[in-house]
Amino acid sequence: MATLMTERKRSALTRGRLPRYTPYAIAVAAIIISAALLSLVGFNVFGWAVLSAVLFAAGNVTSAAIVEGRRKATDKFATSLVVGAFLVALLPLVSVIWTVLVNGVPGLMAPGFLTTSMNGVTGAVDNAAVKDGTPVLGGVYHALVGSVLITLWATIISVPVGLLTAIYLVEYSAGNRFSKVITFLVDVMTGIPSIVAGLFAAAFFAMILGPGTKTGFVAAVALSVLMIPVVVRSSEEMLKIVPNELREAAYALGVRKWRTIVKVVIPTAISGIASGVTLAIARVIGETAPLLVTAGFATSINMNVFAGWMSSLPTFIYTQIMTPTSPSNADPSTQRAWAAALLLIILVMLLNLGARLVARVFAPKTGR
Amino acid sequence: MSKRIDVSDLNVYYGDFLAVEDVNINLEAKSVTAFIGPSGCGKSTFLRTLNRMHEVIPGARVEGKVLLDGDNLYADGVDPVTVRSQIGMVFQRPNPFPTMSIRDNVLAGVKLNSRRMPKSDADDLVEKSLRGANLWNEVKDRLEKPGSGLSGGQQQRLCIARAIAVSPDVILMDEPCSALDPISTLAIEDLINELKDEYTVVIVTHNMQQAARVSDKTAFFNIAGTGKPGKLIEFADTTTIFNNPGEKSTEDYVSGRFG
């Protein structure tokens, strides 16, 4: 005899579980209680948020421990820790972006900021801007040009050197002693303080071209010292994950090793290599110290990396803050510095987006 | 288009470790030879020495002679690239180039070597090779699509098409069906039967029914124990190996008593 079972109103399977609205109720209670507690000692928003979060986490864990048992309580405790750590990590990032946006947008919006240099902008101009309310003159065009050119040359130097080194390490060295030495030196180079790279380039060019040689190219050499190890490391990792089966497939077709590398291995890894290079560029475009000692300070546009001092965005920010154009009225300089900082962040963000785009464009195609 | 292979006194080493000992075997032109034996007995290692693919593995080296129609592959001054362009290979796992279309995969042997080829010739070669691999009808409408979008069995036939596109004399197959389902396996086995009209085919397989189905001659390899070198135990007509083997260990293996 078959009996049909109807659905029970209160399922035995959900016994010992908190109702679904519990976390919301605890959240509301935590917010109210923390507000009340804080009003006793003096209310502030930051403390309110922190105390609410702590009370909410504690309430959640305790209620779970009482009703649902130890496993659920541990789960909620770990979840609270993970989410809390995530928020703590996010806080400085959001704060930095917010500060730079608030301080940088007015300067970035100033007319001619992106299209003029600091040539002819003197303390008197800034004083007039503060006293008479005339627009803040002067811009970052020369620094933008300098940053782009110096980074471009650094990339031109670093990518071939770094990529070829990585190819040697992965494809040819077969783990011999020489390759271990190279790997070790590359690791050491990764840790070089950037000012040391700058001093190296400055000293090197002082030796071959005479002391005091400061050009964009010297700066590019300094940056490439910082960039090469990053390019080597990222390219090496990318080449290593190309499956050996593809190399064997090419060899079995009677293809020479160097052709296999150029036409099979590198195209397969190119998306990773390209995004690694882009990230290396993003890493060095914000370097300040090596540029201070290699490219000098310039206030006018210099398109030639091989002659004359050159400005760049980081050194522009540095000089605007440390030595304001008008010592008595520093505000216009500060405004320009923040705007340049915002521009630099935007550049780095664009490079990161570019890296993703490059990775997607070059990625091996799938589809039927 | 098809050449015989004669192997005499061949030892294969990985560093100091003797992996395969003293192989003497004669593979006829336009025939299918199957290598069977338990795992680790050196079948694949030996197969790789027939087109010097073992040199890709660090530390692997060979003593002895492998004659391709009388020319020793291991003579001084022989370029392994020349050897491999005459003795093609198909691997256990299908490995089409992921960055290339189906058409480019077939032409890979030509294109990667930068030989110039008029488009009409290239089209003919693509069609001929894909037809030769029984894949043409399935892919003729999507030659420009990536090769990695095909099914496993189709990918393996694409790899065979790629191998025959460089018109080798011998085709080596290292367990070509072990990653495939029975239907795809059947397609590959039919293909092997057709290939032997034009090529010398050598196939390593763990599937004894497959060896019985496709091969003219069968070589049984065995290993005395871990750390001992693999040896060629018996080499004879496939019917002899499976019905009336000369060695006790061969009989044990083909009858399923061990391995």
TrEMBL record, chain A:
It is found in: Cell membrane. It is a multi-pass membrane protein. GO terms for cellular component: plasma membrane. It comes from the Bacteria. The keyword Chaperone does not apply. GO terms for molecular function: phosphate transmembrane transporter activity. Keywords: Cell membrane, Membrane, Phosphate transport, Transmembrane, Transmembrane helix, Transport. Coiled coil: none annotated. The chain crosses the membrane at residues 21-40, 46-67, 79-101, 140-170, 182-209, 215-232, 264-285, 337-359. One of its GO terms (biological process) is phosphate ion transmembrane transport. Residues 144-355 form the ABC transmembrane type-1 domain. Belongs to the binding-protein-dependent transport system permease family. CysTW subfamily. Part of the binding-protein-dependent transport system for phosphate; probably responsible for the translocation of the substrate across the membrane. This is Phosphate transport system permease protein PstA. It comes from Arthrobacter psychrolactophilus.
From TrEMBL, chain B:
One of its GO terms (biological process) is phosphate ion transmembrane transport. The keyword Repressor does not apply. Transmembrane segments: none annotated. This is Phosphate ABC transporter ATP-binding protein. It comes from Arthrobacter psychrolactophilus. InterPro entries: AAA+_ATPase, ABC_transporter-like_ATP-bd, ABC_transporter-like_CS, P-loop_NTPase, PstB-like. Pfam families: ABC_tran. Residues 5-248 form the ABC transporter domain. Keywords: ATP-binding, Nucleotide-binding, Translocase, Transport. One of its GO terms (cellular component) is membrane. GO terms for molecular function: ATP binding; ATP hydrolysis activity; phosphate transmembrane transporter activity. PANTHER family: ABC TRANSPORTER I FAMILY MEMBER 17.
